TrEMBL record:
Taxonomic source organism: Desulfofervidus auxilii
GO cellular component, as recorded: cytosol
Gene3D superfamilies given in the database record: HAD superfamily/HAD-like
Name of this protein: Haloacid dehalogenase
Taxonomy, superkingdom: Bacteria
Taxonomic lineage: Bacteria, Pseudomonadati, Thermodesulfobacteriota, Candidatus Desulfofervidia, Candidatus Desulfofervidales
A single MF term (Gene Ontology): phosphoglycolate phosphatase activity
Length: 226
């Protein structure tokens, strides 16, 4: 469905953006958690890669939706591996999705208040912002660890609203996961978009719920709703 460019953007004052899978290609994180960490775990404990992957994935799943899910300190202790050091080893894989910088410049030109809102751990966040220089385009960066809750928790959004004082009826939030979008919807955020192309190495995923969707940010620059 094509939306009216002026009406759509004139009604938005705040833009909240997820990082991994939304602005950044999730291939970096997928490779890190699904390949590199199991490889190092297998080497450390004398397991096959498949045995190690099954074990660490089972551990990941227990923490899904919590702050531990992305906490590098937690996983470094849990797995007895130096995860921040491992992330630095593959920093060359960190990359933005197409049209991300164009979209961020577009938002700044229109005078929108643009905030990065992420579950990423501080060390991972700092590495990614240093590598991509995306921090130049934000009015602020809010990490789930600052709030004390993950974005999947509706209380996160209430606390974020108290902190930033944004008006949900004039706010846009974009994420490549539906759980944060559902939580944001509960506090009344009006414009919610699901980013279907999270990883360049995977096929686009369609939302289960009835969220507007984009594959690339060029669609929003052109004022297109789907």
């Amino acid at each position: 469905m094509k939306g009216n460019h002026k009406i759509f953007w004139d009604d938005i004052e705040w833009v909240l953006l997820d990082l991994d899978g939304t602005l950044l290609d999730k291939y970096f994180d997928d490779y890190f958690w699904e390949t590199l960490v199991p490889e190092k775990y297998a080497q450390k404990y004398g397991l096959s890669f498949q045995e190690a992957k099954e074990k660490v994935v089972a551990l990941y799943q227990r923490e899904e939706g919590t702050l531990n899910w992305t906490d590098l300190d937690f996983w470094s202790k849990k797995l007895a591996l130096d995860l921040p050091a491992l992330k630095k080893q593959i920093a060359h894989l960190i990359d933005t999705h197409p049209y991300v910088v164009d979209f961020l410049k577009f938002l700044k030109q229109m005078g929108k208040k643009v905030f990065l809102v992420t579950n990423a751990h501080y060390e991972s966040l700092n590495l990614k912002l240093k590598h991509t220089q995306l921090g130049l385009y934000f009015d602020g960066v809010i990490c789930a660890f600052d709030i004390g809750l993950s974005k999947e928790d509706k209380r996160f959004w209430r606390r974020l609203q108290e902190k930033l004082k944004f008006d949900p009826s004039h706010t846009l939030f974009i994420d490549d996961s539906e759980a944060p979008l559902l939580a944001a919807k509960e506090i009344g955020i009006k414009y919610l978009f699901f980013k279907t192309q999270a990883s360049s190495k995977s096929s686009p995923k369609l939302p289960i719920n009835n969220f507007s969707k984009i594959e690339y940010f060029k669609e929003l620059i052109e004022g297109i709703e789907k």
